Amino acid sequence: MTRIISKTIAVNRWRALRWLMLLAAAAMATAAGAVTPQEAFRAENEVAMDKMMTAMVVKPSGDLDRDFAAMMIPHHQGAIDMALAELRYGSNEQLRRIAQEIIVEQQQEISAMQFALGKPLPPSVPSPTQVGISEPRAATPENQDHTQ
Known about the structure:
The chain has 5 helices and no strands. The chain is mostly helical. The protein has one domain (about 1-145). It is globular. The two termini are about 15 Å apart. Residues about 130-148 have low confidence and may be disordered.
């Protein structure tokens, strides 16, 4: 069992590192003009989807409610990550407003699920705006470990 846990931790660390490297590469390439906004958008969304799908793989705990939340929290975080990419690269004002709404609503639902499971609520963050939304949401223990 210890060997499995160690391997899982190593795999998750590698995936997190890979995600950070891809995100950094996309940001640097965009800043240098090496890729189009469409390419950067696609790369960020691919990373977000990979991260979400990996985090949604949850070993059943025997507690249906906990398992539901453990899968839904990363699903909602994936929606937030994709909405942030829309705000960074999108130009359609209606879709940008929808992306802002997605971020707010999904953060509220993540908080509600964590609260329902007895976890502390995450710190408040400002609502997204169309200006200044250049940084992805900071990694915190609350939005990284969804299986506890």
